[in-house]
Amino acid sequence: MSVRLLFGAIGLTVALLTALGLNALFDVLNTPTLLAGNKVLLFETDDDLTQRLEQAGAQFGDPQFSLAWNNRNDLDLHVIDPAGNHIWFRQRTSPTGGELDVDANADRMRLTNSPVENIYWPPGRTPEGNYVVYVHHFANHGDRDPTPYTLRITMKGRVREFRGSLRYGEESQRLTVNPQEVADWFPLPAERRGWALVAMAGWGAAVGLLLALGLRLPQAFFPQVARAEFGVLRVLGSALGGALLGALAGAFGQLLFGWLVGLGEGFARFVGLSVLGATLGYGLAHCVPNLPVRPARWAGAIGGALGMGAYQWAITNASDATGRWLVAALLGLAIGLMITILLWRTRYALVRSGGTIAPSRLTSAYRTRAG
Q: Which of 79, 101, 107, 320 has the maximum number of C-beta atoms within 10 A of its C-beta?
């Protein structure tokens, strides 16, 4: 393999294998469940119904009634509150504060295969008493019946889902629920920001540690690199430094993502991954010989920015696990290429000088002039 590609390929391979191993570890630890309810830089923690609600601009409240199905037919959600007010598509609000804010597949010109409907009350305005909820199959728009659906009810920090299926014109069984009688329902996922930081710091630490080793050790085959760089203490120090600085990069990226997510997940993820990559590159430059600080920092930032696009593609077309190894591979490739470029420029300068200049004298300024 040409030296022009060698360290880029090494960085890509090491980071990719690290990310694959981490994905396996996350599965064993059931990390997605632990992180549920949190916004995490490289984890998709929202379930499908929650994602649909967010994409539709739905409001979240207490109580909240959400309906999802998977074809273009039109199912309607109905809720009768304790005061007897009937909320549905022809009466979207009630005097008690309830509102139907999302009504999918009612317009034949805007049909979707991932519809959702939502009725909610703002938190703190929960009317006490019994709520009656049911689903009605209002219109068949050409898809096969019966149409399966999922009805999710959230009350008093508890959640329960009900599933069924309906044919055109049918109405589901009416459910009566009371906020005072949901103690046996599942608790909502809790915010665990500390665990989000731990997950991202651990991911960054593992990538940083193995990249520090993977980008240092192969340089033993290059005569222009001092032998002292491969002593046991230097190698161990490089590994520990890479792990520590990688952990800081992961935690810093997660903090920025959490602070900015209110401005949009795409923007927050772009900033978080760019800063994570830049911090990782900066850290590795202090742990790996022949990795210049400024180019490594910019390479990491560019790799992180490209990783954002790769991650967004992955969570749409594959999974967040695929997104994590794509991000790691791009970071490893971008940072590793900086060593490749530096070593190649050193070799080029030696050839141009006729081999009369000692490699130790090839300062950055000289290499720039020689090139």
A: 79
Structure tokens at 128: 């006490």
Kindly list the distances between the CA atom of residue 296 and the CA atoms of 224, 255, 283, 301, 332, in Å, as whole numbers in the listed order. 20, 22, 9, 9, 11
CA gap 347, 272 in Å, rounded = 36
pTM above 0.90, yes or no: no
Phi-psi region of 175 (alpha: psi -120 to 50; beta: other; left: phi over 0): beta
What H or E segment, with its residue span, contains residue 116?
strand 116-120
Q: Is 111 exposed, middle or buried (0-12, 13-18, 19+ CB in 10 A)?
A: middle
Residues of the chain with CATH 2.60.60: 48-187
Distance CA 275, CA 283 (A): 12
Which of 60, 39, 36 shows the shortest CA–CA distance to 259? 39
Kindly list the averaged pLDDT for each block of 10 residues, start to end, along the chain of length 371. Answer: 72 95 91 83 87 89 95 96 96 95 89 94 89 96 93 92 95 95 86 87 97 92 79 94 97 95 90 97 92 91 96 91 96 90 60 50 41 35
CB 309 within 8 A of CB 237: no
CATH class given for the domain over 48-187:
mainly beta
Secondary structure percentages of the chain, helix, strand, coil, to 5: 55, 15, 30
Burial 222-258 (b: 16+ CB within 10 A, else e): beebeeebeeeeeeeebbebbbbbbbbbbbbbbbbbb
User: Per-residue pLDDT tens for 94-152?
Assistant: 999 999 999 999 888 889 999 999 999 998 888 899 999 999 999 999 999 999 999 99
Cα distance between residue 326 and residue 277, in whole Å: 13
Residue with tokens 């014109």: 169
pLDDT in tens, 231-254: 899 999 999 999 999 999 999 999
